[in-house]
Design goal:
Elements (H helix, E strand, L loop, with lengths): L5 E3 L5 E3 L13 H7 L9 H15 L2 H4 L12 H23 L2 E4 L1 H10 L8 H24 L4 E8 L5 E7 L4 E3 L1
Parallel strand pairs: 3-4
Antiparallel strand pairs: 1-2, 4-5, 5-6
Helix pairs in contact: 4-5
Length: 182
């Protein structure tokens, strides 16, 4: 593929790769990157980081392969970036509740900070943030929603936050304006 600019699929059809960008990712060197980026004041630039990674990459990949690719190190996500990712996934949940159930779902900035604090990002990337939302927020939200359906309560709004004990809390408002905290 690198030499000829194309390859054949399983049926023998030529697939052109001349104007294609392939993104290949690996965790090789992730510990080194984490160590080098721990202190923002001492963090090297992209060129320095790439140079530091090359010996580690050569242990795992042939030189001929490395000569044909452009190495772009991915930096660890900082707290601000993790907050943006958490908000993106929470916003999807907000949209889904609104579109599918007609319920206004809101969340506090304290909830975002709580999620970020509970999810250090060493080898897992954003997966840990997504997993936290799926394991700690979605089940509780589903429980409240199902309970309201069985009680035939018309919920207008659900607010998700964090209490003083760092516990995730839900506050629901019914169509009648009655608030329920849990």
């Amino acid at each position: 593929m690198f030499d000829k600019g194309g390859m054949e699929d399983g049926e023998g059809t030529h697939v052109d790769f001349k104007n294609t960008t392939l993104l290949l990712t690996t965790n090789v060197g992730s510990d080194l990157i984490s160590q080098m980026c721990e202190d923002p004041a001492l963090m090297p630039d992209a060129t320095g980081l790439k140079e530091a990674l090359m010996p580690e990459l050569r242990k795992h990949f042939p030189a001929a392969f490395l000569g044909r690719v452009t190495v772009i190190p991915y930096l660890p996500l900082d707290e601000t970036s993790r907050g943006v990712i958490a908000r993106l996934h929470l916003d999807r949940l907000v949209a889904r509740m609104g579109e599918q159930h007609g319920v206004t779902l809101t969340y506090s900035e304290e909830l975002v900070a709580h999620i970020v604090a509970c999810c250090p990002m060493h080898e897992t990337g954003a997966r840990l943030l997504i997993g936290y939302i799926e394991q700690h927020i979605l089940p509780q939200l589903s429980r409240y929603w199902l309970q309201a359906m069985t009680e035939k309560a018309a919920i207008r709004q659900i607010d998700i936050g964090v209490n003083g004990d760092e516990q995730i809390v839900f506050e629901t408002t019914s169509q009648e304006g009655i608030c329920q905290k849990s």
